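subagent[fold] <- orchestrator: predict structure for attached chain, return tokens only, no commentary.
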Amino acid sequence: MIKPREELNSIKIYDIPLYPDALDMKLDSNENYIGPSTAVMRALKEITPEDISHYPCYGKLYEILAEINKLDLNQLVITNGADEALSAVLNTYISKNDIVLNVSPSFVMPKIYSNIIGANYIEIPYEIRWEYPYKSVIAAIEQYRPKLLIITTPNNPTGDIVNRAYIEELLNKYPYMLFLVDETYANFAGISNIDLINNYDNIIIVKSLSKDNALAGLRLGYVASDSKNISFIKRVLSPYNVNVAAVTAAVACLSDSRYFEYVSKEIQKSKEYIISELEKLSAIVYKSYANFILVDFGSRSELVYNMLKANKIAVKSFSQPAELKNCLRITLPTYTAAQRLIAKIKTKITIVFDMDGVLVDVSKSYHESIKYTYNYFTGKHITDEQIFDAKKRGGLNNDWDLTSYLIKQSGFDFDYNKIVDVFQSQYWNDGRGSINKEILLIDTDMLEKLSKKYNLAVFTGRPRQEAIFTLSKFNIKQYFSKIVTMDDLPFDKQKPNNDGLLLIKDSFVTDFLIYFGDTVDDAKCASSFAGAYGVGVLPPNNKSPELKDLLLKSGAKSVINNINELNTVLESIDNENKQNCT
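subagent[fold] -> orchestrator:
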């Protein structure tokens, strides 16, 4: 085998799909979702056999581009997409070992082209998300004395723009250096630096018709610069590098003055809506001047990505660089499509279950352990009524705390850790204790059906080991996508602190939680958490009207006799939502 150039050994292929995916929405490549101007489609239909059989002529397209940009024809050269434009500029001016600067993250192709040449491609990281690192760029120029600085404005994938005054400052300060400004998304931002080529011979502008004019499938870009620069760039380009269909489409769309005005308004409307809705879901949406947004979903990023993929919606995820971890880039579609997108992201309500007294009957496990431990330290017996009376006061949702409180109320003062040890010897005992006397309360068939329609979570004051033991024993652990236990929260923020509900909310893309709990603390927790609907559940050994009234007074929106009546609550909420929609 004949070996290729050495530089190619370390370069990964930019893989592209061979066949189109069956998608409902393709929002991963920043293409124009709206599609091209109707003038483009009419013009393409008028292409003749002679047009196809002869090499294309570019004069008319050059005249339109020159008029739009207020340039001379010799200051322009068209290319087979902006990618070829970037490649041509680098191949014209960069040699092996030359230094090229760019920020990171940014569009990957200039890096690939530079590495093919054998140049030293140096990336300057953003210091603040996502604010162009002006000072760091100047410091890098002073340190490395590069031949070329690449500026992408708006930048992909961050969406930020570079201040025009800063670009002019660099042009004046470093006249020996070349500046390649990629303006692929500039029309969406309403900016352009293309007029600077009339005053500076060290700036080259790259433009594209793929994004704003929806010609990605026809591949058309162009380069604007000083006429001498253009004459050199033409030498590395193939003759007739742009096909007749692309030229015909470009002439048509650039002649349709109202087309981009419509696209711009629709994209802006879509952007405002999506940002508003995603921020309600606690996602971080970075300011973008392009036709896409970069969204940090935190730990939910993979969940959102897979959820959209399952619904045949493609968005862009990133494995590199590390700064983009948990970020998804979403191309902005039409406003109508944006509504469908958001509906898919926040499709499911989240149901949160307390365990003890809700999912499982603990009257023969926890309650027996309370009685055993109380008797161990006091020599006395305690009734269920006394236990319930203590629970009603609130603040004792943890049964260790409850047992310690009851012992102290009887006039005894023992070390808390010793009380916990005795309690655990009775309840847990390495999985051999009274934990095995617990009875499952929820119907498993109903739980399986709920898991297909809702996000399901558990919020319990148990240690994780004990919670997993019980959920696994009854073969229901698989239904809960999030399980928050004592081990997941700091000592001073144990259940039913709102931080537990926040952990659950941040594990899903959801704006509504329904929290089923059996104590006044559960009811208070739900009522004080924005976006939560608290439901009281009467435990198996206390169905008293007094407890029901207490749960309602503590903030529960409703109270049910047992967890298997939860469908009545869900139906009520569903009907209420339908009425609000109408």
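orchestrator: received. Logging for downstream: The chain is about 40% helix and 15% strand. The first helix runs from residue 38 to 45.
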